[in-house]
């Protein structure tokens, strides 16, 4: 039983890390109805830029804000060059454009910083908490706890931002229909610029945390794959959904791998979250917290 | 008009520069310098190209210069096959090919036999390709996955104080859940049965950037050793997860794909004490100094970052290039010195390699790699490996000598597997007694 | 001027409903087919087209076109976004391999068809969620197919005939006592299969089935109201699409790679094929081919072009940089094409046709 709880807690903590990445997707989808395939590349780009500057001799306190500036510039450029000409085009074309974007960003990151792997030390030690280890014989990393704290703060802030501010409300109008939003005077360009910047910020946070966990390398783009099931389970349009989805996915994926895995040969973490999310979708086709899709003829 | 004229002049110059040497041996470099595995690709091909530049600086192979062309494969089989097809006939034909990618190697496995171009798969690919009767054009040189797994068990046995001491011990095989990770299973299973240790197999789904579940299982099982058969981001993640679960890294033994600087640096402190297999002894060698002096000092080095000279992947690339050039040299001895060899002739060279310690000494690489002696029956040529340990800054060898596992057992498995392949593909194995 | 249908009268239903109602189209299409089957081999015999063209460009181009065509049926015609194409290709390849291996004297084409049918069956099972889930939710959940199938094939040794390396090596393609060994014969074999299946697809999308797909795509509730059964229609689309992908997968293994590991059919491949459909034009048979040409040829072209630039300008770029630039240009071009024509390359051809019809008179 104690082992069960250990796995459960580990799963919940991993789940928070997934939510962090999923959050970036939610932001952009909510604001523009674009499924931003390049989010994983943005995570990589942000982390690599921060570490690259840090390796050049800047302290982290300097390199991280500088990277944020870079991400804002990137967001504004994306809005101007990629999104603006594609306003009111079919969803799938926008999706494809973000795929092109992901190639571009990956190439750019490697052209500037090289393809070498780098270590990132945030100064948070990734070791089991000793008193938990002694008292309960459970290995819980303090790094994970801090990451979970950061993610919670981020989610709470963003959820408030979306529900309480004027921009937040404007965002929801934009997501429904670009042209309608434009025609009632919502400044689409500004809003997209802001949202992509915020998504860049989320990518930076995710990149730093994941990067210090596994090293800053190209494989950071793969964390997007971990975030997708979270996204569909929680709903594309819900910020709290991302965190609840993350917790559900993380916990059940770990429990399945540990307790179910041995019977089927293991390694089911690749597909299990997707199947689980699929089952949830069959009950609620727009995710747990997604806005209900009303369809009329 | 002026522009066109200029372009013409430039092209003519380029053409002239290319044909300055009459005798040129062409080697395609199907490499990958972007993407998730770029660190391995750039290090390995950087090393190989550096060594070939060095050979050219010293007058080539009996006067024959080496030329190469890089082609970006992105580690993608389709791109790799296209690269192979594009380069195989170029500049008089490819002497050999080395894709450093299992997927690409499989994609051109049938093609190399048809085109009569030898393919080396240094330490990866099909283990049963060591049987040269069924795979005449494939050379898994130095150490295949199976021999490596056998050497791992031998090392763990020695550490425990003898192979019989492994009885009753627990060994976890933590592997990348793919054909690559499953390849050593037959060998490990055979050993587990023979020596009586318990083998716990725990797969990690690709890409392996989340391993908490696996390491909790390991923590629960309390194994004596963990074999880490990983690739890419999975390795750093494994080390980090071991740390967060309090598993000592000294007890983790990695495969050679998990044993480069690029695998441990991202893990930082967590990697200290971690051991892996290797077929190069880490350290400095005269040949590396020569590369620094004659290649990099002249501004002809391939690596952007000079500090990577002598890193694991770089040294592996140098090792590969040594074997390539020695095979070409060997072929020249038979088919005419100072001549350009065809792929078929180089194949003969690979099959009759004899790079012993004396030869390695002459090349300035004594001790860097095990001696290699191939034959028609044995395309692997060695089967030896070493164990190295990361001390937080660099790799250090922990076994003074080359270690090999149960060669007879592995050979039997190789022959069985190759025979099965021959039946499936309707290949009649060559008769090695008739090969000259 | 050159492309006017004026003066071409149809006097029977058969003539009116043929695939190419316009004479210029018929001639053009005939020429292309004749060129592909006769012209290209002839050029090869004359030494103008090299072996490289067949084996590294034309064969993969055709195979990917077929896979893109399969996905286009599902995504472009029936409106169901899928990211599991490579999984269906894997089912086709591994299915065909096992039929060939386990049944003596199995004709290769039959094995391909059976492999395709296996893929179709898998497609139906994984298509079931589409009855409830839509859009990107569906796309993301088709990833379940992708990961599950590759995992399953890796786990169950039977599929690879317990190969210790976990790979399959495709048997030789033999038909009527002839072995397709040379690259040209393999090209012709692939061309034959792809042509027949394309013709079938072209006809299918013009019939009742195709129309029901498009109705579902445009608005499934409206389609249901006017009497199309969404379940049958959607599952049919999944089955047909998966069949095409399955056959493409078998060709990929047999006529192109030879030896394949399950990871050969990874997510990357699925994405690549989706790019082809979107870039080429969703809902267009021609678009599948154009998209495939774009995605297969562009990286090769970029690679060669950058190499040429480097050597001719004597640029000593660090080796990693040119590969990175290649990626950037590739991504940039995708965005550029989407901005210029969000509906894909096929639409450009339509616009071109319109222009040709009027040229040289503006109205």
Account of the 3D structure:
With 297 residues, chain A is mainly α. Chain A has one domain. Chain A has helices at 2-32, 39-55, 60-83, 91-113, 130-136, 142-164, 166-176, 178-183, 188-214, 223-234, 239-264, 272-283. The termini of chain A are far apart. Chain B has 16 helices and 13 strands. In chain B, helix 10 links the parallel strand 7 (225-229) and strand 8. In chain B, strands 6-5-7-8-9-12-13 form a 7-stranded mixed sheet, sandwiched between helices. Chain B folds into 2 domains: 24-143 and 285-374 and 415-434, Rossmann fold (3-Layer(aba) Sandwich); 147-278 and 387-405, Rossmann fold (3-Layer(aba) Sandwich), CATH 3.40.50. Chain C is mainly alpha-helical. Chain C has a two-stranded antiparallel sheet. A two-stranded antiparallel ribbon of chain C has the order 2-3. In chain C, helix 4 (85-102) packs parallel to helix 6 and helix 4 (85-102) crosses helix 10. The mean pLDDT of chain C is 88. The longest helix of chain C is centred in the last third of the chain and has 29 residues, at 285-313. The interface between B and C is large, with 55 and 48 residues.
**Count of distinct structural domains of chain B:** 2
Task: Determine the number of helices of chain B (DSSP H or I, runs of at least 4 residues).
Answer: 16
Percent of residues in beta strands of chain A: under 5%
Overall shape of chain A: globular
Work out the number of β strands of chain A: 0
CATH-scheme architecture of the largest domain in chain B: 3-Layer(aba) Sandwich
Q: What is CATH's topology name of the largest domain in chain B?
A: Rossmann fold
The radius of gyration computed from the alpha-carbon positions of chain A, rounded to a whole number of angstroms, is 20 Å
What is the H-and-E element order of chain B? HEHEHHHEEHEHHEHEHEHEHHHEHEEEH
Helical percent range of chain B? 40-55%
Largest sheet, strands/sense/barrel of chain A: none
